[in-house]
Amino acid sequence: MEKLKKYLLQNFEQLFVLLVLGATVTINYFIPQKTAFLNFYFLPIILGGYYLGPRRAVLGAILCVILVSAYVLLNHEAFVIEQTEMNTYLHIMVWAGFLVLAGAVVGRLQERLAGEVSVTRELNQSLGDSQAALEAANNSLRESNQNLEERVRDRTFELEESKQALEGLKKKVENALYTTMDSSVVNLMIEGRLRSEKRNMSVMFTDLVGFTTYSESTPPESVVTDLNRFLHDMEPVLFAYRGHIDKYMGDGIMCEFGAPLDYQTHRLMAVVAAVKMQEKLGEHKHPWQMRIGIASGSAIAGLIGTRRQTYTAIGDIVNLAARLEQFCAPGRVLIDRYTHEDVAHFFNTRKLRALPTKEKVDLAKEHQLDLLYAEVAAAPDDADLHFRLGKLHLDMEEPMEALGYIERALQLDPRNTAFKVAYAEAGMKLKEYEKISVKGKRQRVEAFEVVGMKDPLDDRSKLPRGLPHVYRQMVDEILIPNDVTLPSEVLDGSLLHSRVVATLAYAIADIMDLPERDKLQILQAGALADIGKEVIPQHVLNRRGTLTRSEFELVKQHPEEACRIMRKMGYETPAVLEMVRHSHERYDGSGYPAGLRGDAIPVGSRIIAVADAYDALTSWRQYREPWQSAAALGEIRSETEKGVFDPAFVAVLDRLVG
What we know:
62% of the residues lie in helices and 10% in strands. By secondary structure, it is an alpha+beta fold. Among the domains are: 194-358 and 446-454, Alpha-Beta Plaits; 360-439, Serine Threonine Protein Phosphatase 5, Tetratricopeptide repeat (Alpha Horseshoe), CATH 1.25.40; 456-657, Orthogonal Bundle (Hypothetical protein af1432), CATH 1.10.3210.
C-alpha cells in the first residue's frame, strides 16, 4: 500500500492529465447529462491544487475548459438537454453527489493539512526548545571560554615568567660554569657523556719569566690587571685551537689538547697554539717573556674531586710537559720527541741535548741513539733501521718507545720473524713496566725547540724555485693573516694549505692575463676557500678510506659554511663569495653545492679547484705520504679527462710546476 501511495504521489501529474482526458471522453460520449457532470472537474482541480500547487492547478483547469469548450463547439446539441421533471431531479442528484464528494475531498485535505500543520507546529516548538537550549549552552560555553581564556592567559603569563626566570638562572649557572670550566666539559656533563678514560693527548704548560719579581714590586691591583690582560690575550688563542684550559697556576697555564673532545691532530693544535701565543705576547708588548713546554702521549683524564670538581689530566706526560717548560728558554717552545714526530713536517725545530730524569745515563747508548735517529730521518722507509732503533730503546728499558719503532718496522716488512718476536717482547715488557709505580718512569727525555713554522712556498718538491720568488711579495702583502685560516687547517693537518692554493691560483690567473682586480679576488678566494671545514666532524676530515653517503653530505656543507663565516668576518664582495661557494664544482657538473658545469662555474672557482687538488696531493697528511709532483700532475690530467677540471687551467698548472 505504501509503495502504491508513493507511486501515485511521484506520478500525480501524469495521472492528473490521464484522469482529465478520460473523464472528458466518458462524459461527452457516454453520459447524457453532460452539463451536470461538468461539476466533476472540480475534483481533479481540487486535488491538483493540493498536490501540484496553484500554478499547475490553474493550468489543469484551463486544460479542462479548453477540452469541454471544444466538445461544445463540435457537438452543441449534446449539451442542450430537454428539461423534463426527471432530468431536473437527475441533474440535482448529480450536482448533489459532486457537492458531497467535493466536501469530502476538501475535508479530507483539510484534515491532512491540519495534521501536517500540527506536526509542523510541534517541530517548531521542538526547534524552539532546542534553540533555547543551544543558546543557553552557547552562553554557558561562552562564559566558560572567557573564564578559560583568562585562566590560560594568567597561566601563560605565569609560565612565561617562570621560563624567563629559569632561562635567567640557567644563563647564570652556565656563565658561572663557563668561567670555571671549559664549555665542552660543561656540555658533556649536561649531556651525561663525560667519563674518565685513558686517551692520547697533548699537555701544555706555560710560565711567565720574571713575574714573581714583578709582582713583588708592583701594586696588587696592577698585578691582577696586567695578569688578566695577559690571560685575555692568551685564552682566545687556546680556544681557537681547541685547547682545554685545565687550570691557572698563578702566572702559569695548564692546558690539554685532545681532551675532553678527541682530535687526531692534537699535537699539531698544541704546537700551533704555543707559537701563536708567543707571537701574541710579543705583539701586545707584555712586560714578561713566556716559557712553554708540550708533551704528548697517553694520560688519564676525568673529573677530579668530590664537592668541588675539575676536569684534569694525570700521567707521566703531565710531569714531562711541566719539566719541559722548566727547561725551556724564555720566549721559546719546547716539545718532546712524540710531539716532534707529528709536527716536524710543518715546523723547523732544533734538537736539544737529552734531559735526563735519572742520575745515571748511558752516554754511549745515548750517542748511538742520536746516530740512529739521524739515519732514520734520512731513510724513513728502512725497516731494519726502525728495528735497530726499537731494540736499542728496549735495551734502555724504554718499551713504549721500542714498541712504536718495532711496529713501524713490521709495517714496512710484515713477514720478518725477528720483527714479530721483538714486537711481542716489547709488548710484554710494556705490560710489566705499566705495573711498576715509580716516579719518573721515563729514563730520558729528548727535547726539541720549535724555531718557526715552515713556509710551504719554499718546498722545492712541489713548487719550482722561480715561482715563489715572482709571487711571494704579492701574496705576503695581500693575503689574509694565517690566524684566520690556521684554526680550520689544523683540524686535518693541512697547515698553510690556503697559502699555497692562493699563490698557485694567483699565478694561473696571472698567466691567463686576467684583469688585476680578478686576480686579487682569486687570491683572496683561494685563501678562504676551505675556511668552512670547521663544520665537518674531524673524524670525517681525517678518514683514510672512502666516505659514506651521509659523511659526504656533511662534507658538501663546507662551501656554504665558508661563505657564512666570510660574511661574519666582513667579506661582502659578491664575486669572491661566489668563487668560494663554487670552488668544489666539477667541470662536468658532478660537483657541489649547485652542480654547475662548464663555463657556468666562475672562472676563479675553476682555477682554485685545480690549485687545491695539486697542493692536496703533494702535501703530507697524517693518514698518507705526499705524492711526487709528476704523479700529482698525472692524476690531475687523468681526472681532467674524466671531466673533473677545466683543461685550459690544468694546462697552465702543468706549465707552472711540470
